[in-house]
Amino acid sequence: MTRERLYLFDTTLRDGALTTGVDFSLDDKMNIALMLDRLGVDYVEGGYPGANPLDTEFFTKKRTKRAKFCAFGMTKRAGRSIGNDPGVAGLLASDTDAIVYVAKSWDYHVHVALGCTLEENLECIAESVRAAIDSGREAMVDLEHFFDGYKANPDYALACAATTIRSGARWAVMCDTNGGTLPHEIERIVAEVARVIPGDRLAIHAHNDTGNAVANSLAAIRAGARQVQGTLNGLGERCGNANLVTLIPTLALKDEFAKAFEIGVTPEALKEITLVSRAFDELLNRSPNRHAPYVGASAFATKAGIHASALAKDPRTYEHVTPDSVGNKRAILVSDQAGRSNLLSELARLGVECDPADPRLNRLLETVKERESQGFAYEGADASFELLARAALGGVPDFFEVESFHVGVERKVVAPGVTYSASQAVVKIRIGDDGFISAAEGNGPVNALDLALRKDLGVYQKHIENLVLRDYRVRVFQGGTDAVTRVLIEFGDGDRDTWSTVGVSGNVIDASFQALVEGIVYRLVKLGVPAQ
Amino acid sequence: MTRERLYLFDTTLRDGALTTGVDFSLDDKMNIALMLDRLGVDYVEGGYPGANPLDTEFFTKKRTKRAKFCAFGMTKRAGRSIGNDPGVAGLLASDTDAIVYVAKSWDYHVHVALGCTLEENLECIAESVRAAIDSGREAMVDLEHFFDGYKANPDYALACAATTIRSGARWAVMCDTNGGTLPHEIERIVAEVARVIPGDRLAIHAHNDTGNAVANSLAAIRAGARQVQGTLNGLGERCGNANLVTLIPTLALKDEFAKAFEIGVTPEALKEITLVSRAFDELLNRSPNRHAPYVGASAFATKAGIHASALAKDPRTYEHVTPDSVGNKRAILVSDQAGRSNLLSELARLGVECDPADPRLNRLLETVKERESQGFAYEGADASFELLARAALGGVPDFFEVESFHVGVERKVVAPGVTYSASQAVVKIRIGDDGFISAAEGNGPVNALDLALRKDLGVYQKHIENLVLRDYRVRVFQGGTDAVTRVLIEFGDGDRDTWSTVGVSGNVIDASFQALVEGIVYRLVKLGVPAQ
Lengths: 532, 532
Description:
The structure is a homodimer. Chain A is α/β, with parallel strands linked by helices. Chain A has 3 domains: about 5-265, Aldolase class I (TIM Barrel, Alpha-Beta Barrel); about 300-395, no CATH class; about 400-525, Alpha-isopropylmalate synthase LeuA, regulatory domain (Double Stranded RNA Binding Domain). Chain A has 20 helices and 16 strands. In chain A, α2 (about 55-60) links the parallel β3 and β4 (about 70-75). At the A-B interface, α4, α8, α9, α10 and α14 of A face α4, α8, α9, α10 and β11 of B. Chains A, B: Pathway: Amino-acid biosynthesis; L-isoleucine biosynthesis; 2-oxobutanoate from pyruvate: step 1/3. Chains A, B: It is an enzyme of class 2 (transferase). Chains A, B: Belongs to the alpha-IPM synthase/homocitrate synthase family.
């Protein structure tokens, strides 16, 4: 039986960017676009060219390989010719595959917010769509407040959708902009719309204001829509958009959807979705939601004693999908075997050779568990994990020993309105019989420590000359300043190689220093430098 | 029109207690039971008497006033008389209004996990229910894996439900134990069951493994179920249970449900639900989810400038319910993307009086934009924003001046394997003509600074005695340790009030110190303390 194609549209970089506290850099945006591209979504909406310099810069170049790269903006304004509308001009100037217009479809909003006639609004939609198509691009229109509009004036909401499609747009996007529509309403309205407009031209854009964004998306698909929009980890304004990380496994693994529809995410890519979700949180510098469907650290964890024996007998009866299908892990280890096999595949991935029967593996497993309970997280710190594994399985050379460090941060008012500020660090190390003491000043304590540590590493110095710190992240657990701090540092060699380390301590400086030292040691290990 | 009664059943203290990392004390349990009682739920499930000494102790006394207090446990075992089953005896000995039994309803599980016949399992249900009723209590039965069981053997799952009701139980609880059932399946199956058993005897117990716990609960109600189970903030094993804090507002405020059903939560109690949700997180010592439907700090926050001006015209067009109805607030984010209208509504929300024509508003907007471009983010730092606004519009008293601070962090190896580590801070301030210098040691540099700063603030000291640091977050921009660091600190007064400040600097210590100082200044401003 041939399955119908169901399209996935990601708006993390546009609607997701409206999330409180989220602030993407250009690098972030490029990374996220590639992450989505690899995952297999069909459309990546990159932002609003012209809204700010960053988005304009982002759209000077197509940022995806497979996925269609989309720019978002308003339809042309009423009472102005299409050639004379700077917003539309900005969209047409961007290097994209598709243009997403946003337009009012609730008659009340046309009057109140646009102050034009209902007919003029339809003309703006039609002309804007045609301009996109004439420029050789795919077009779609986000019909804002579609469901509220449909409830108030179904004919006008439908007219907006019909005009969109009649003008040649690929998709009419039904947006539940307020997020207040419930699943049964979505299902009824989409079914009614699909009687007039083919479902293959209808998209659903749901928000989570009643906790139903995922259910609303599924309801719309059941009622006929063939494109579903959402964001990574449900990012988005207010309560967020539909979470693609939840929707994709449901669409791929649950019979009713999997048998009916084909999506662009392959089974292999689906196994990466847990990693994608966590890497995205890492990039946002926030703790992954342990309880997230499919990908949360606790999604396959069982605490109930009464389930334990049945789980051991047959895990499938207590798991609605296999953790492996989404690249997640069963958190209660049914047997030592499971933990071991996870560990073995991780070592294989890193290229650390090891006999599966090696008894030191058990000790390594214990160590990893213990350190994770202290706050270490190796998912984002491959280099630290590899050092831990190599230390347990065969040794990492003792390149150098840190005897002490001291950092001072000072700030004082030296004259009215004039402030003196300094961060200074002293690091004392030992290489074999030789002692080295270095001092440095930085624009912060970690920078000062980094500079002092790398100022003179004796015989190793030449191997770390081109090492750069690419990213530095701090996360604090358990609230308050007296809590546990985890620092993740990403290093690069100025060329292509990057590696990440982790440090954990009650003290941010100490945690940072651990991660700095491991970054250097890892580099020396990978270069095969012998210890002095 | 008379509305049908819809019952709310809370299992925070039983199913919610299975959440990874959650560990209720007896005090916690008593507080939560009272919190739920005040909110107006109909049933409070307290735990599993006999499972551990704490739960046994908890059940020596009824812990609710209005709500029915329920104990949970297994139906009697096959091959053993009811009078000879210690589990049932424990339930009967507890001081409760109702007994909730859990029983298998999937034939496969009866065979594999219980090892008895299907008929014996039905007898266990019947006898256990009758024992509860004979003891003068209400009985209900949680039918484990009801939906998977129904798909595998509908007749047997139905027989379990029918036996439950025929034996006199008030409710047959259809549990989606794995959490893998989708809304359309729930709706179909419940509708089928409701043809055999009156809906007024059917309850729904949903889990969130596909992100549909809320939608599944609503679907079951639409199909006939008249009792809905869930937990505060969606606590629960794996991905959690249905979130009552999301469900209750939907049931109370959305026409289709509100017109059809009466629930025990009054409109006045509903206005407390935001507070209940946050107080519960407080008790769990975790940060509230800003994006939670209805009650999240961002649930009514708008960042898009195009929406903010329309919001100012008519908030109802952008809000699916009024924030006030659930005791939440409208927040309009001051950010790059927005403008003057955002700023004005934000000032109004914070209670900062201001003439819309005041020319100082433009300067304030410029300042906000400039500071945001430096890395400040006021979305998560109301207190810093209010201080900035008050300073621009009318002045904030000069309570004290920080003349200098110094922090030192030291770590050294004092003997093989023995490390000495210390963080010390000295803070020098001036209040009027008086100088104060304080020193403190902390488990990290920020902790040391915080302690030193708050050690002696002279005349202000008494106003900040109960101030606590509740959360501390660090974000680094543009990569590398020489980048810009943003620190967000959340303060509390140990009671209900919380406020957040932001600091930005190239130096994490400096950024933290700014946020610490602003947290204190804000407190003094809000208390109306005069400057010396």
